[in-house]
Amino acid sequence: MVMKRSIALCIIFTIITCGIYGMYWQVILTDDTNTLADEPGTSGIMALIFTIITCGIYGLYWAYKRGELIDRAKLDRGIPASNGGVLYLIVFILGGIIAYALIQNEINNLQDYGKTY
């Protein structure tokens, strides 16, 4: 189940825990976007492990893929989608926590729309 989360609290917890909560946040963002897009993609734990093993390089692919999945979830709900993958990739390069916040905002917004088939 996908939950709405306070973006401000997630950022504060990430700062207070020196980034440890940010790792947890990446895990739940991964799982939530997979759920919203009905995509059995890489689990959140595996995404975190790949990001750590590759010293953050996998995070670039991760950010791009989250944008694609959010776009797919929007289209499934009849919402016009943009090229979110490129946006999240660029923002992730500038600051990962900002990308996390934008992705969380999209997840929170998508929960207000029912899925249409």
Automatic annotation (TrEMBL):
It comes from the Bacteria. Keywords: Membrane, Transmembrane, Transmembrane helix. The chain crosses the membrane at residues 7-25, 45-64, 85-103. The keyword Disulfide bond does not apply. InterPro entries: DUF4234. It holds the Pfam family DUF4234. Residues 5-71 form the DUF4234 domain. The keyword Disulfide bond does not apply. This is DUF4234 domain-containing protein. It comes from Parasporobacterium paucivorans DSM 15970.
